[in-house]
Amino acid sequence: EEQVLAIRKEHSITVLGKDVPAPITSFNELDAVEYKLLPRLKENILSFGYEQPTPIQMQALPVLLKDRALMACAPTGSGKTLAFLTPIINGLRSHRTTGLRALVLAPTRELAQQIYRACIELTKSTGLRTHIISKASEASQHYGPECKQKYDILVSTPNRVRFLLQQQPPLLDFKGIEWFVLDEADRLMEEGQNNFKEQLDDIYAACTHSQKRVAFFSATYTVPVAKWALRHLKNLVRVTIGVQNS
Ligand code: ADP
Ligand code: ADP
Ligand code: MG
Protein backbone atom coordinates (compact mmCIF):
# COMPACT_ATOMS: atom_id res chain seq x y z
CA GLU A 1 0.00 0.00 0.00
CA GLU A 2 1.08 3.62 0.45
CA GLN A 3 3.80 2.90 2.97
CA VAL A 4 5.32 0.27 0.71
CA LEU A 5 5.47 2.71 -2.18
CA ALA A 6 7.05 5.35 0.07
CA ILE A 7 9.78 2.96 1.20
CA ARG A 8 10.53 1.97 -2.39
CA LYS A 9 10.67 5.57 -3.47
CA GLU A 10 12.95 6.58 -0.62
CA HIS A 11 15.45 3.84 -1.49
CA SER A 12 15.12 4.00 -5.30
CA ILE A 13 13.66 0.51 -5.49
CA THR A 14 11.79 -0.25 -8.72
CA VAL A 15 9.82 -3.48 -8.99
CA LEU A 16 8.13 -5.30 -11.85
CA GLY A 17 5.91 -8.34 -11.41
CA LYS A 18 2.69 -9.52 -9.83
CA ASP A 19 2.12 -9.39 -6.05
CA VAL A 20 5.66 -8.34 -5.20
CA PRO A 21 6.26 -8.81 -1.44
CA ALA A 22 6.73 -5.64 0.62
CA PRO A 23 10.29 -4.52 1.36
CA ILE A 24 11.72 -4.77 4.85
CA THR A 25 13.60 -1.88 6.45
CA SER A 26 15.24 -3.75 9.31
CA PHE A 27 16.71 -7.24 9.63
CA ASN A 28 14.45 -7.70 12.67
CA GLU A 29 11.43 -7.74 10.38
CA LEU A 30 12.67 -11.08 9.13
CA ASP A 31 11.53 -12.56 12.45
CA ALA A 32 7.97 -12.41 11.11
CA VAL A 33 6.39 -15.87 10.89
CA GLU A 34 6.00 -15.63 7.13
CA TYR A 35 9.77 -15.80 6.59
CA LYS A 36 10.58 -18.65 8.97
CA LEU A 37 14.10 -17.29 9.35
CA LEU A 38 16.46 -19.68 11.15
CA PRO A 39 17.47 -18.09 14.49
CA ARG A 40 21.08 -19.11 13.88
CA LEU A 41 21.10 -17.43 10.47
CA LYS A 42 19.64 -14.28 11.97
CA GLU A 43 22.41 -14.28 14.58
CA ASN A 44 25.03 -14.68 11.88
CA ILE A 45 23.62 -11.72 9.95
CA LEU A 46 23.48 -9.57 13.08
CA SER A 47 27.05 -10.56 13.97
CA PHE A 48 28.30 -8.52 11.00
CA GLY A 49 27.02 -5.41 12.75
CA TYR A 50 25.21 -3.95 9.75
CA GLU A 51 22.86 -1.21 10.87
CA GLN A 52 20.20 -1.87 8.30
CA PRO A 53 19.64 -3.83 5.11
CA THR A 54 20.82 -2.17 1.91
CA PRO A 55 18.09 -1.33 -0.65
CA ILE A 56 18.63 -4.52 -2.64
CA GLN A 57 18.52 -6.55 0.57
CA MET A 58 15.31 -4.74 1.63
CA GLN A 59 13.47 -5.91 -1.45
CA ALA A 60 15.26 -9.08 -2.58
CA LEU A 61 15.18 -10.82 0.81
CA PRO A 62 11.35 -10.86 1.08
CA VAL A 63 11.01 -11.86 -2.59
CA LEU A 64 13.39 -14.81 -2.30
CA LEU A 65 12.30 -15.88 1.18
CA LYS A 66 8.82 -16.18 -0.31
CA ASP A 67 10.21 -18.45 -3.01
CA ARG A 68 9.69 -16.16 -5.99
CA ALA A 69 11.97 -16.13 -9.04
CA LEU A 70 14.06 -12.96 -9.10
CA MET A 71 16.05 -10.84 -11.48
CA ALA A 72 17.85 -8.23 -9.39
CA CYS A 73 19.96 -5.27 -10.50
CA ALA A 74 21.88 -3.19 -7.98
CA PRO A 75 25.17 -1.30 -8.10
CA THR A 76 28.50 -2.86 -7.21
CA GLY A 77 29.14 -2.79 -3.47
CA SER A 78 25.46 -2.74 -2.54
CA GLY A 79 25.36 -6.03 -0.63
CA LYS A 80 24.03 -8.44 -3.24
CA THR A 81 25.93 -11.43 -1.82
CA LEU A 82 23.99 -11.43 1.45
CA ALA A 83 20.77 -10.89 -0.52
CA PHE A 84 21.08 -14.25 -2.27
CA LEU A 85 22.99 -16.31 0.31
CA THR A 86 20.50 -15.66 3.11
CA PRO A 87 17.48 -17.16 1.30
CA ILE A 88 19.52 -20.13 0.07
CA ILE A 89 20.73 -20.93 3.58
CA ASN A 90 17.27 -20.42 5.04
CA GLY A 91 15.69 -22.63 2.41
CA LEU A 92 18.14 -25.46 2.93
CA ARG A 93 17.86 -25.25 6.75
CA SER A 94 20.38 -27.96 7.71
CA HIS A 95 22.91 -30.38 6.26
CA ARG A 96 21.62 -33.40 4.40
CA THR A 97 23.50 -36.34 2.98
CA THR A 98 21.31 -36.41 -0.11
CA GLY A 99 23.68 -34.24 -2.16
CA LEU A 100 24.02 -30.77 -3.59
CA ARG A 101 20.94 -28.59 -3.23
CA ALA A 102 22.21 -25.12 -4.14
CA LEU A 103 24.39 -23.87 -6.98
CA VAL A 104 25.89 -20.37 -7.22
CA LEU A 105 27.74 -19.43 -10.41
CA ALA A 106 29.98 -16.38 -10.87
CA PRO A 107 32.02 -15.23 -13.90
CA THR A 108 35.49 -15.30 -12.29
CA ARG A 109 37.34 -17.47 -9.80
CA GLU A 110 37.98 -14.47 -7.59
CA LEU A 111 34.29 -13.66 -7.34
CA ALA A 112 33.53 -17.30 -6.64
CA GLN A 113 36.09 -17.18 -3.81
CA GLN A 114 34.45 -14.09 -2.31
CA ILE A 115 31.03 -15.71 -2.39
CA TYR A 116 32.45 -18.88 -0.87
CA ARG A 117 33.98 -16.95 2.02
CA ALA A 118 30.77 -15.04 2.67
CA CYS A 119 28.87 -18.32 2.63
CA ILE A 120 31.20 -19.88 5.19
CA GLU A 121 30.52 -16.92 7.50
CA LEU A 122 26.77 -17.01 7.02
CA THR A 123 26.43 -20.77 7.47
CA LYS A 124 28.35 -20.79 10.76
CA SER A 125 26.78 -23.24 13.24
CA THR A 126 24.03 -24.20 10.80
CA GLY A 127 25.76 -27.44 9.84
CA LEU A 128 25.40 -26.59 6.15
CA ARG A 129 28.46 -27.39 4.05
CA THR A 130 29.73 -25.32 1.18
CA HIS A 131 32.22 -26.29 -1.49
CA ILE A 132 34.05 -24.32 -4.15
CA ILE A 133 35.40 -26.06 -7.24
CA SER A 134 39.02 -25.04 -7.44
CA LYS A 135 40.50 -27.29 -10.09
CA ALA A 136 38.36 -29.21 -12.51
CA SER A 137 41.34 -31.45 -13.13
CA GLU A 138 41.42 -32.64 -9.52
CA ALA A 139 37.77 -33.39 -9.62
CA SER A 140 37.78 -37.15 -9.71
CA GLN A 141 39.07 -37.26 -6.15
CA HIS A 142 36.53 -34.86 -4.78
CA TYR A 143 33.34 -35.42 -6.69
CA GLY A 144 31.34 -38.26 -7.99
CA PRO A 145 29.21 -40.28 -5.61
CA GLU A 146 31.12 -39.10 -2.55
CA CYS A 147 30.87 -35.38 -3.06
CA LYS A 148 27.13 -35.69 -3.38
CA GLN A 149 26.91 -36.64 0.22
CA LYS A 150 29.32 -34.11 1.60
CA TYR A 151 28.07 -30.74 0.47
CA ASP A 152 24.84 -28.77 0.33
CA ILE A 153 26.00 -25.65 -1.52
CA LEU A 154 28.35 -25.43 -4.50
CA VAL A 155 30.05 -22.24 -5.71
CA SER A 156 31.91 -22.16 -9.02
CA THR A 157 32.59 -20.57 -12.37
CA PRO A 158 30.57 -22.17 -15.21
CA ASN A 159 33.47 -23.83 -17.09
CA ARG A 160 34.44 -26.15 -14.33
CA VAL A 161 30.90 -27.18 -13.61
CA ARG A 162 30.16 -27.97 -17.20
CA PHE A 163 33.38 -29.92 -17.59
CA LEU A 164 32.44 -32.13 -14.64
CA LEU A 165 28.90 -32.59 -15.92
CA GLN A 166 30.23 -33.68 -19.30
CA GLN A 167 32.41 -36.50 -17.99
CA GLN A 168 31.24 -40.07 -18.48
CA PRO A 169 29.87 -40.85 -16.01
CA PRO A 170 29.16 -37.24 -14.93
CA LEU A 171 31.11 -36.16 -11.85
CA LEU A 172 28.34 -33.92 -10.59
CA ASP A 173 24.69 -34.67 -10.00
CA PHE A 174 22.39 -31.66 -10.13
CA LYS A 175 19.07 -33.45 -9.89
CA GLY A 176 18.72 -32.25 -6.31
CA ILE A 177 19.52 -28.59 -7.01
CA GLU A 178 16.76 -26.48 -5.43
CA TRP A 179 18.52 -23.12 -5.71
CA PHE A 180 20.09 -21.89 -8.95
CA VAL A 181 21.74 -18.49 -8.56
CA LEU A 182 23.78 -16.48 -11.04
CA ASP A 183 25.88 -13.69 -9.58
CA GLU A 184 27.00 -11.00 -12.02
CA ALA A 185 24.54 -12.47 -14.48
CA ASP A 186 25.11 -9.51 -16.82
CA ARG A 187 28.74 -10.58 -17.20
CA LEU A 188 27.88 -14.27 -17.42
CA MET A 189 25.51 -13.58 -20.30
CA GLU A 190 27.58 -10.96 -22.08
CA GLU A 191 28.05 -11.64 -25.78
CA GLY A 192 31.60 -12.13 -26.94
CA GLN A 193 34.66 -14.27 -26.54
CA ASN A 194 34.12 -15.69 -23.09
CA ASN A 195 30.56 -16.59 -23.83
CA PHE A 196 29.14 -18.51 -20.92
CA LYS A 197 25.64 -18.63 -22.36
CA GLU A 198 25.89 -22.10 -23.84
CA GLN A 199 27.47 -23.43 -20.65
CA LEU A 200 24.70 -21.90 -18.59
CA ASP A 201 22.05 -23.54 -20.72
CA ASP A 202 23.73 -26.94 -20.27
CA ILE A 203 24.09 -26.45 -16.54
CA TYR A 204 20.52 -25.22 -16.14
CA ALA A 205 19.27 -28.23 -18.09
CA ALA A 206 21.04 -30.55 -15.64
CA CYS A 207 19.09 -28.99 -12.75
CA THR A 208 15.93 -30.97 -13.21
CA HIS A 209 14.32 -30.46 -9.79
CA SER A 210 10.71 -29.48 -10.41
CA GLN A 211 10.62 -26.79 -7.73
CA LYS A 212 13.96 -25.09 -8.15
CA ARG A 213 14.23 -21.45 -7.19
CA VAL A 214 16.10 -19.21 -9.58
CA ALA A 215 17.72 -15.83 -8.95
CA PHE A 216 19.90 -13.61 -11.11
CA PHE A 217 21.91 -10.75 -9.65
CA SER A 218 23.72 -8.09 -11.70
CA ALA A 219 25.11 -4.62 -11.42
CA THR A 220 23.29 -3.52 -14.57
CA TYR A 221 20.01 -4.32 -16.26
CA THR A 222 20.80 -6.00 -19.58
CA VAL A 223 18.58 -7.38 -22.32
CA PRO A 224 20.12 -10.88 -22.55
CA VAL A 225 19.53 -11.48 -18.84
CA ALA A 226 15.97 -10.12 -18.94
CA LYS A 227 15.19 -12.21 -22.03
CA TRP A 228 16.52 -15.38 -20.47
CA ALA A 229 14.66 -14.75 -17.23
CA LEU A 230 11.36 -13.95 -18.92
CA ARG A 231 11.62 -16.97 -21.19
CA HIS A 232 12.48 -19.51 -18.49
CA LEU A 233 10.87 -18.28 -15.29
CA LYS A 234 7.23 -18.15 -14.29
CA ASN A 235 5.94 -15.49 -11.94
CA LEU A 236 9.18 -13.52 -12.15
CA VAL A 237 9.90 -10.49 -9.98
CA ARG A 238 12.30 -7.89 -11.28
CA VAL A 239 13.96 -5.48 -8.88
CA THR A 240 16.18 -2.57 -9.85
CA ILE A 241 17.96 -0.23 -7.46
CA GLY A 242 18.74 3.26 -8.67
CA VAL A 243 18.37 4.43 -12.23
CA GLN A 244 17.26 1.80 -14.67
CA ASN A 245 19.76 1.97 -17.49
CA SER A 246 18.14 0.07 -20.34
P1 ADP B 1 27.90 -6.43 -4.35
O1 ADP B 1 27.87 -7.90 -4.61
O2 ADP B 1 26.56 -5.79 -4.51
O3 ADP B 1 28.97 -5.74 -5.13
P2 ADP B 1 28.83 -7.24 -1.74
O4 ADP B 1 27.81 -8.28 -1.44
O5 ADP B 1 30.16 -7.72 -2.20
O6 ADP B 1 28.26 -6.21 -2.82
O7 ADP B 1 28.96 -6.31 -0.48
C1 ADP B 1 29.79 -5.19 -0.47
C2 ADP B 1 30.22 -4.85 0.96
O8 ADP B 1 29.09 -4.40 1.70
C3 ADP B 1 30.76 -6.06 1.69
O9 ADP B 1 31.92 -5.68 2.37
C4 ADP B 1 29.67 -6.42 2.68
O10 ADP B 1 30.20 -6.97 3.85
C5 ADP B 1 29.02 -5.09 2.94
N1 ADP B 1 27.58 -5.16 3.32
C6 ADP B 1 26.68 -6.09 2.94
N2 ADP B 1 25.47 -5.84 3.47
C7 ADP B 1 25.60 -4.72 4.21
C8 ADP B 1 24.70 -3.95 5.02
N3 ADP B 1 23.42 -4.29 5.15
N4 ADP B 1 25.18 -2.86 5.65
C9 ADP B 1 26.48 -2.51 5.52
N5 ADP B 1 27.39 -3.19 4.77
C10 ADP B 1 26.96 -4.28 4.13
P1 ADP C 1 41.89 -25.11 -13.85
O1 ADP C 1 42.16 -23.72 -13.40
O2 ADP C 1 42.14 -26.12 -12.81
O3 ADP C 1 42.54 -25.45 -15.15
P2 ADP C 1 39.48 -25.05 -15.35
O4 ADP C 1 38.13 -24.59 -14.94
O5 ADP C 1 40.15 -24.20 -16.33
O6 ADP C 1 40.33 -25.21 -14.05
O7 ADP C 1 39.33 -26.54 -15.89
C1 ADP C 1 40.33 -27.52 -15.77
C2 ADP C 1 40.27 -28.45 -16.94
O8 ADP C 1 38.92 -28.77 -17.22
C3 ADP C 1 40.85 -27.78 -18.16
O9 ADP C 1 42.18 -28.18 -18.34
C4 ADP C 1 39.98 -28.29 -19.26
O10 ADP C 1 40.57 -29.42 -19.88
C5 ADP C 1 38.74 -28.77 -18.60
N1 ADP C 1 37.64 -27.88 -18.91
C6 ADP C 1 37.22 -26.83 -18.19
N2 ADP C 1 36.17 -26.27 -18.75
C7 ADP C 1 35.92 -26.95 -19.86
C8 ADP C 1 34.92 -26.84 -20.87
N3 ADP C 1 33.99 -25.90 -20.85
N4 ADP C 1 34.96 -27.74 -21.86
C9 ADP C 1 35.86 -28.70 -21.87
N5 ADP C 1 36.81 -28.84 -20.95
C10 ADP C 1 36.85 -28.00 -19.96
MG1 MG D 1 28.79 -9.16 -5.93
Q: Summary?
A:
It is built from 11 helices and 8 strands. The protein has helices at 2-10, 39-47, 55-65, 80-92, 109-122, 139-142, 144-150, 158-166, 185-188, 197-206, 223-232, and strands at residues 13-16, 70-73, 102-105, 130-132, 153-156, 179-183, 213-218, 237-241.
Describe the model:
α3 packs parallel to α4, α4 (80-92) packs across α5 and α8 (158-166) packs across α10. This protein has helices at residues 2-10, 39-47, 55-65, 80-92, 109-122, 139-142, 144-150, 158-166, 185-188, 197-206, 223-232, and strands at 13-16, 70-73, 102-105, 130-132, 153-156, 179-183, 213-218, 237-241. By secondary structure, it is of the alpha/beta class. The structure holds adenosine-5'-diphosphate (2 copies) and magnesium ion. Magnesium ion binds next to α4.
- Structural class label: alpha/beta
Roughly what percent helix?
40-55%
- Binned strand content: 5-15%
Give the C-alpha Rg.
Answer: 17 Å
Identify the strand order in the major beta sheet. Answer: 1-8-2-7-6-3-5-4
Mean pLDDT: 93
> Which stretches are poorly predicted, pLDDT < 50 over at least 5 residues?
none
| End-to-end Cα distance | 27 Å
Question: What is the count of helical runs?
Answer: 11
Secondary-structure element sequence?
A: HEHHEHEHEHHEHEHHEHE
Major sheet:
8 strands, mixed
Total number of strands: 8
- Overall, the morphology is globular
The molecules bound to the chains, other than polymers, are: adenosine-5'-diphosphate, magnesium ion
